[in-house]
Amino acid sequence: MWSWSHTQDAYDNAQSNIRDLPREKLEIVFAEWRALQTNKTDELLKMNPDFDLKKYDKAIIYAKTLSDDDLCNFIWEKTSEQAICDNGGHAAWICPYGCHRVSFDLPEHKSDT
Fold first, then answer.
1. Which of 26, 61, 72, 79 has its CA 20 to 30 A from that of 20?
2. Whole-number Å distance between alpha carbons of 36 and 39
3. Measured between alpha carbons, how far is residue 27 from residues 3, 5, 36, 81 in Å?
């Protein structure tokens, strides 16, 4: 994993790519963030931070009450605080574990417009 070192356009693209995710994925990523036992940045960098299944289940239910914008804004805030990407810098980790990622590139369907 690497730390971010991209252009503002790349960050804007990643944020846009989060907004393009299916609602169900947004709810899952939101719940993964909420299920962390701690909010300390150094803990977020661990590969296996403590995960609370009860918090996750409650967060999934709560996520269903939020707007898409609220979910995306929360996820982007957490993603940018963490500022981790895969090796090579092609995809931003949008969850604390790196299992959910978005590209820093603009999706093809948007680059044509």
1. 61
2. 7
3. 25, 27, 15, 19
